[in-house]
Amino acid sequence: MIAGYKGLGILSATTMAVALAGCSSDDQPFTGQLSLAVSDGPVHNATEVCLEFNEIEIKKAGSAAETMTDLTLQQINLLSFQGMNSAPLFIDVEVEAGEYDWIRLGVNAVKNGNGGQGEPLEDSVGCSYGGSYVLFEDEPDVPYNAYVPSGAQTGLKINSKFVVAQGGATSMTAEFDLQKTLTEPPGLDGDIIVRPSIRLVNDLEVGAVTGMVADDLIAPTIDVSGGSAACEPTVFVFADGTGPGSMDMLESIASAMVKNDADPTVYEYTVGYLQPGEYDLAFSCDAENFDPGVGDVTIVAGQTAVLDFPVPVEEPAE
User: Nearest-CA neighbor of 198 among 112, 63, 86?
Assistant: First the structure.
């Protein structure tokens, strides 16, 4: 938990327990605790993607949707939480046990809105301005209002089933992938459309992959005179069996930006919140041409796999 962070549901857990718990008895629990956090993949050239979350709604199977009332408005820079890092929206809120059909995140991000104006919220996490907005590296002082189509009506609806166990604690993470979904179409007067691809995962049922990328895959495209790098190094995760010739960034499951924060000669990446299973990973400088050395990785819940680029070439058996 972030120091000084006030999640959406912290102040109203008692209220939500009454509203959502339903019937229970002293010796037969019918409720469980639910926590929800948000995390994000990379967005090249953007320094802040801030969204204001103002409502949470959950839908239990066979029941009407329930809105968690009296939530505190929360503003989060999604780019501050990548890899296995996440920002909590609410923690340990008591809800009815059972299977749920979906979660809806209400977001204040309307067309021609006030995103990027005024001061950030007092409890804002990583945001420089108010509202929902996007800030780019090449225009560090020009925030663009973020517009989520139908956001005012339906918000960000995540149609993923999950289960809250009786008397147990369930922690979920909504993993955003904004790399695919930030666009500035004609006629929006500077608004940035945000159509995030979101995966809802159970924190106890996911793993991660990390690794290093050789600098010679990146360095040749860097302007040694001091200009910006032409390469936007990213590692993409695809379904198992996806060949290099058929890879498409829009079909990727997840991605991670390659960084060299600690040492300028060491490039590293981490992709978090992956469901257990087999995946293909590929490196790309432009999200179009993928390194032919596609790597296979097996994700195990609770563990972090390692895959470096270029992928070692296996010698044929004699």
Answer: 86
Task: Note whether 251 and 240 are within 8 A (CB).
Answer: no
Give the distance, in angstroms, between the CA of residue 95 and the centroid of all CA atoms in the same chain: 24
What's the pTM?
A: 0.77
Two tokens at 254? 């997840």
The Cα 262–Cα 252 span in angstroms is 27
C-alpha to C-alpha distances, 18 to 12, 23, 156, 246, nearest whole angstrom: 10, 10, 25, 51
C-alpha span between 243 and 257 (Å, rounded): 21
DSSP labels for the chain? --TT---TTGGGHHHHHHHH--S-BTTB--EEEEEEEEEE---TTEEEEEEEEEEEEEEETTS--EEE-SPPPEEEEGGGSBTT--EEEEEEEEEE-EEEEEEEEEE---TT--TT-SPPPTT-BS-SSSSSEEEETTEEEEEEEEE-TTHHHH-EEE---EEE-TT-EEEEEEEEEGGGTEE--TTSTT-EEE--EEEEEEGGG-EEEEEEE-GGGTGGGS-TTS---S---EEEEEETT--GGG--GGG-SEEEE-B-SS-TT-EEEEEEEEPSEEEEEEEESSSSSB-S--EEEEE-TT-EEE--BSPPPPPPP-
Closest among 99, 98, 103, 101 to 23, alpha carbons compared: 98
Residue in 191, 118, 189 with CA at minimum distance from that of residue 148: 191
What amino acid is encoded at 216 in this protein? D
218-227 per-position pLDDT tens digit: 865 545 455 5
Per-residue model confidence as pLDDT tens digits over 44-93 = 788 999 999 988 999 999 999 998 765 678 999 999 998 889 999 988 99
